[in-house]
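Question:
When you can, review this sequence-structure pair and walk me through the tokens.
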Amino acid sequence: MSELTAMSGSKNYDSLMHEVCVERGWCGGIVDEKPSHVDDFIPATGTVSAVQFFDWLFLADGVNPNEEPEKWQSHKDGLVAAFIRHMGADVVEASRLKWDLD
């Protein structure tokens, strides 16, 4: 992937967000009286794992996945699998986790 492509976003990320947000309902919400979205947690650089992304999805919705982990395990499994399916790996560069604005 060229640097320009990485900077302009990823159709893979668009597809991932469609699945996790539209289809599964993990879009973010109001947390501590402020709007929150998974994009708020993604660093500008570095790597992001599928499990980190899962944690951020839950935090953006105000849910602690470490409380009652058995209750959230099926969600975790599905969201981690979606990340890997759409992004092509279980760890990706953070720059790939941006919306495709083209």
